């Protein structure tokens, strides 16, 4: 490269730099007069606002309408004791049994089989808690009919449906660590006699069959050990009441009395909250915001969120608003047995005390746990704008999205003195004035 070329390039770079510096002045009005006054872009500001959080007892949660039910018990050191059982009907097989064609009874055997959901399914875990603890379950025959038009819930008293003075018709032990995922429960001869003495109408007519066999209640016996809760798929073809019937006029006949979508079935839960959680619930009743939120499924607890200073943004246009919840992962040993809630659902309170979905037109707003940051982050831009406009003012709720059949729980941190351990309401806004 000759000297003249070098001097030329240096001079060119110098003048280009002057031009760029001059064109980057912050207060330049170039082009301003060409835009309508309302189209001038305002500066977007970002701020955080205080969040108050309260742990509340969950309202009545319906547990009907699910194919999966829960059975078992656990003793969570953070949340307390949880016991899960379920009630279900059975119905007639597709091809009815004809007792009159069987002749005199030689033998009748009944087995109630239940399909436990194994590990590896895409939509639900196989157990919750310490699966290495053996559990004992009782099976009771229902004495009252389950009604399809009734709204059974997590707190339904199962004792209303069977004779409390009667012994269970069967008892079985089960450890979720077993490889066999089908529970087979042999029912006693005293119960088999109902089928042995049944007439053709009871084996053919749905109403007559329901009057004879009203269903079953499966519940664990209380155990002081930690234990676990398993998931049972009642709509799996292997969940049924299997009858083996042998008569003098025919060989052994096997019929499967079904648990199908037309059968009433639902989970029921009993809860005894830990001393710590009880204190937090008492604080919330006194409207004392705690440094933690305790959120648990199975219709146990939910969180109430309030924004005391949201009116400070009155007159501003909200560009974006996010609400971030950070889960407490300090007790890793506890989390190993009791994993955090996979998905949280956000709801809003109404003036008359009802709870509705938050999304526009009543749409569903749920957020999956970010396992890298252990956070749940909701976009609540429209809600914050509506609060500022005076349309909403009763707070938000968070609850497990699958609380009907989800015993999992999360502890949410809300330490006002440390923003890294706080529920964060982050607001981006524009001052239109």
N-end to C-end Cα span: 58 Å
Summed up, the domain count is 2
Structural class: mainly beta
The radius of gyration computed from the alpha-carbon positions, rounded to a whole number of angstroms, is: 31 Å
> In DSSP terms, counting alpha (H) and pi (I) runs of 4 or more, how many helices?
6
Tell me the overall shape. elongated
How many distinct beta strands?
24
Question: What is the N-to-C succession of helices and strands?
Answer: HEEEEEEEEEHHEEEEEHEEEHEEEEHEEE
Q: Which stretches of 5+ consecutive residues score pLDDT under 50?
A: 1-40
Q: Biggest sheet, open or closed, and with what strands and sense?
A: 12 strands, antiparallel
Q: What portion of residues belong to β-strands?
A: 35-45%
Mean of all residue-level pLDDT scores: 82
- The percentage helix is 10-25%
Blueprint (SSEs and pairs):
Layout: H1 3-23, E1 44-49, E2 52-57, E3 68-76, E4 80-88, E5 105-116, E6 127-129, E7 135-141, E8 170-174, E9 182-186, H2 189-196, H3 206-212, E10 216-220, E11 228-233, E12 240-247, E13 250-258, E14 265-273, H4 275-285, E15 292-296, E16 301-306, E17 317-327, H5 332-337, E18 343-349, E19 355-357, E20 366-368, E21 375-379, H6 381-388, E22 396-400, E23 409-413, E24 424-430
Antiparallel strand pairs: 1-24, 2-16, 3-4, 3-11, 4-10, 4-14, 5-9, 5-11, 5-12, 6-11, 7-8, 7-10, 12-13, 15-23, 16-22, 17-21, 17-23, 17-24, 18-19, 18-20, 18-22
């Amino acid at each position: 490269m000759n000297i003249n070329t070098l001097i030329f390039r240096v001079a060119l770079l110098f003048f280009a730099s002057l031009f760029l510096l001059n064109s980057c002045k912050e207060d330049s009005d170039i082009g301003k007069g060409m835009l309508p006054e309302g189209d001038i872009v305002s500066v977007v500001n970002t701020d955080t606002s205080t969040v108050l959080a309260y742990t509340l007892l969950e309202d009545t949660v319906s547990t009907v309408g699910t194919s999966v039910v829960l059975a078992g018990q656990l003793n969570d050191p953070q949340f307390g004791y949880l016991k899960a059982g379920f009630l279900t009907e059975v119905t007639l097989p597709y091809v009815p049994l004809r007792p009159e064609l069987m002749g005199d009874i030689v033998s009748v055997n009944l087995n109630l089989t239940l399909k436990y959901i194994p590990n590896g399914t895409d939509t639900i875990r196989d157990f919750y808690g310490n699966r290495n603890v053996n559990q004992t379950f009782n099976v009771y025959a229902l004495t009252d009919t389950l009604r399809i038009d009734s709204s059974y819930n997590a707190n339904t008293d199962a004792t209303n449906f069977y004779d409390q003075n009667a012994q269970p018709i069967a008892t079985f032990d089960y450890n979720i660590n077993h490889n066999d995922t089908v529970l087979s429960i042999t029912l006693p001869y005293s119960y088999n006699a109902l089928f042995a003495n049944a007439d053709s109408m009871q084996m053919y007519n749905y109403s007559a069959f329901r009057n004879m066999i009203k269903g079953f209640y499966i519940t664990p016996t209380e155990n002081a050990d930690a234990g676990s809760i398993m998931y049972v798929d009642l709509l799996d073809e292997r969940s049924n009441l299997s009858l083996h019937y042998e008569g003098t006029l025919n060989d052994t006949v096997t019929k499967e009395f079904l648990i199908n979508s037309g059968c009433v079935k639902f989970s029921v839960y009993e809860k005894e909250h830990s001393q710590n959680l009880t204190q937090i619930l008492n604080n919330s009743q006194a409207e004392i915001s705690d440094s933690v939120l305790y959120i648990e499924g199975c219709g146990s607890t939910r969180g109430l969120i309030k924004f005391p200073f949201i009116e400070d943004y009155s007159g501003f246009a909200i560009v974006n608003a996010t609400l971030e919840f950070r889960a407490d992962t300090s007790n890793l040993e506890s989390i190993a047995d009791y994993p955090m809630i996979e998905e949280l659902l956000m709801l809003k309170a109404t003036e008359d005390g009802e709870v509705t979905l938050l999304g526009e037109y009543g749409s569903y707003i749920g957020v999956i746990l970010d396992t890298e940051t252990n956070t749940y982050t909701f976009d609540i831009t429209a809600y914050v704008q509506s609060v500022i406009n005076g349309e909403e003012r009763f707070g938000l709720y968070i609850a497990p999205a699958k609380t009907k059949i989800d015993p999992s729980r999360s502890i949410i941190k809300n330490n006002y003195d440390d923003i890294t351990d706080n529920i964060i309401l982050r607001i981006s806004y524009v001052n239109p004035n």
